[in-house]
Specification:
By secondary structure, the chain is an alpha/beta fold. It is 29% helix and 17% strand. It is globular and about 45 Å long. The structure holds D-xylitol-5-phosphate and zinc ion (ZN).
């Protein structure tokens, strides 16, 4: 069950970083106070962009002790599940839109001893998860259409976050809500108040004038606002 005052977890994305120095970047994110690393895996098919394979991720595993989550924006996630486990990812997040047999895919991830998550594109309803909540520990609500960093936050997704928070609460399952896309100190509070507890951020972390640590600390503070985490005392979309 989601604690109203659970501090926000920040998972930086390396998508807008320098791919020639990924090892240094993951170490820098740990030093900056990040909670985990968000790998944006794109296959040029499910999304119109191409990024990292398991070998690239594995090559940075020794540079940090932070957990790795792989956001699989790929058309055939079942093909490489074991390779992502070997690469040191503790959580695999597949897109509901890419999985013909989502229940089977999530079961296969759990059988590898990994945490399973499901990502929902902006147009995909929260109800897509109703029958697999017992197989996952995270839902990733896309607050941009996937494929690129630096896009604008879609605030209308906060209603979907609130609906998911209600469904998860009613189910009694321990599923965390993470949001991804356009997250910065300006946008994080709305998603937090709606019920999200972890936040992917790329361009806001890389682009902050005072550096990565300042970006992460500023987002954490902004999420909980002046009330220091008492989410129930401020207005938010009906949970
Ligand atoms: C987009 C990715 C996001 C993206 C976030 O498809 O899934 O993780 O990298 O980057 P920003 O924070 O710049 O929107
Ligand atoms: Zn992502």
């Amino acid at each position: 069950m989601m604690e109203p005052t659970q501090p926000p977890l920040i998972a930086p994305s390396l998508l807008t970083g320098n791919f020639a120095r990924l090892g240094e970047d993951v170490a820098a994110m740990e030093a900056a106070g990040a909670d985990r690393i968000h790998w944006d895996v794109m296959d040029g098919c499910f999304v119109p962009n191409l990024t990292f394979g398991p070998d690239i991720v594995a090559s940075t595993r020794g540079a940090t002790s932070l957990p790795f989550e792989a956001h699989l924006m790929v058309a055939t996630p079942d093909l490489l599940l074991a390779r992502w486990a070997e690469a040191g990812c503790g959580r695999l997040i597949v897109h509901a839109e890419a999985c013909t047999h989502l229940h089977r895919t999530l079961g296969a991830i759990n059988e590898l001893g990994l945490h399973a998550g499901v990502a929902l594109n902006p147009a995909t309803p929260a109800t897509a998860l109703r029958h697999v909540l017992d197989l996952i520990d995270l839902v990733l609500v896309m607050t941009v259409n996937p494929g690129f960093g630096g896009q604008d936050y879609i605030s209308s997704m906060e209603c979907k976050v609130a609906e998911l928070a209600r469904t998860i609460e009613a189910s009694g399952q321990g599923v965390e809500i993470e949001v991804d896309g356009g997250i910065s100190a300006k946008t994080i509070a709305g998603a937090y108040l709606a019920g999200a507890r972890s936040f992917v951020s790329g361009s806001a972390v890389y682009g902050h004038p005072a550096g990565k640590r300042a970006a992460i600390e500023e987002m954490r503070a902004a999420a909980q606002g002046p009330n220091d985490g008492d989410a129930s005392s401020t207005t938010s979309p009906e949970r």
